[in-house]
Amino acid sequence: MPMFRDRKDAGERLAALLLHLKDRSPIVLALPRGGVAIGAEIARLLGAPLDIVLVRKIGVPWQRELALGAVADGGTPEIFIDERMAESLAVPGDYMRAETARQPACVAISAMGGRNTSWPAAVAAVKTPITIPCRVWNQRAAMKAAR
Questions:
Q1: Among 38, 33, 31, 30, which Cα is nearest to 4's?
Q2: Each residue of 109-119: pLDDT tens digit?
Q3: Is the pTM of the predicted complex or chain greater than 0.85?
Q4: In terms of domains, do 104 and 124 share one?
Q5: Is 2 part of any domain?
């Protein structure tokens, strides 16, 4: 049996655990796709603003779905690379350099879709970001960007 009935249920139950942050005027930063529905419920129940953080996965060259790292949007794109994984899989350094150079442009193109781009300044002012990821590698990149 799943832990949550659906994303709305997950958001409601997680918001109950975050109610202690309500007085700190948090901002909820959700990562598409799965994190947005959950983040929307949390934002609604905390009376907090909701925005999204765009994240692009950096996959292993021979298995693109295996995440080696991620790039998150923000004032300056933030890059997370799992160095231990890169070393253990012997991922070529030229591949990692090329991907970390290419992915920020992909994130920037995605960001032009009309979303609120004010979240880096809002997070700096609020100091209580709540990030709602859909993958662990997304969370790491988003947290780096939110700092």
A1: 38
A2: 455 454 555 54
A3: no
A4: no
A5: no
